[in-house]
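Protein in question quoted for reference:
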Amino acid sequence: MMREKIANTIAGGRLLVSDGAWGTFLHAKGLKSGECPEQWNLTHPDDVYEVAKSYIDAGSDMVQTNSFGGSRFKLEHYGLGDKTSQINEAAANISRKAAGDDNWVIASIGPTGKMLVTGEVTEEVLYETFREQALALEKGGADAICIETMYDLGEATQAIKAVKENTNCEVISTFTFQLTKKGEYRTMMGTTPQDFAKTVIDQGADIIGTNCGNGMERMIPIVKDIRGVDAQIPILVHANAGLPVNEDGKDIFPETPEDTASFVKPLVNAGVNIIGGCCGTTPNHITAIKAALND
């Protein structure tokens, strides 16, 4: 079935709901610390499917894939570099099965962990790394590629180019921002939301936004900054369930589904088009977001 492009659906006036956290669910199912989460696409596909399906059942219009650390660079750390294409194709296949015909798969690509600024890697190598991952994700059934949790414009640019030039997938580009002592939001490389938006739009991103690092409340000013750059580009937010609180050596995300839902209207007023969750969020958070959007 040919699904309408996400950006076209948004242009028609719909507000959409994405999914929530993945890592915590996989750990609850038995993923051990230090184990490769992406390998579970091959060894525990039913468990990965259950995560994706739980979000679709909760009301998500789109679901991500278990491929955030699925680049060859990341997988080589576990001795799995030769399985890069297989692991990513399986990730998309699993989420495609969960999403069915009526919902979108927005396949996750995270940072490689390699730094352009230090000369640790070249643009050409980054491009090829992202191309390999994107091709496998598209083959597995992805509708869009979500290049997420980025902080370096140079790396994000190579990822966007690799997806745009080698696949038919829509490109979602999201950066992670932190609040500085001066009261500004910047990435760890010093990039502002405005500079991020201008750059990735110029590179051809179809949907842009922010994920992780902040709860819903702090996402509101970031969205306003991004929306100030472009009045039409679709904006996605994947927020944490609040800022983490350390309890007995473990990070706890304190925001309840009701807390999360209370920020939906201000986010929409700020200019957001797609709302989902990141660290600490659950299917209950997604159901609450869906209900708030319907209201």
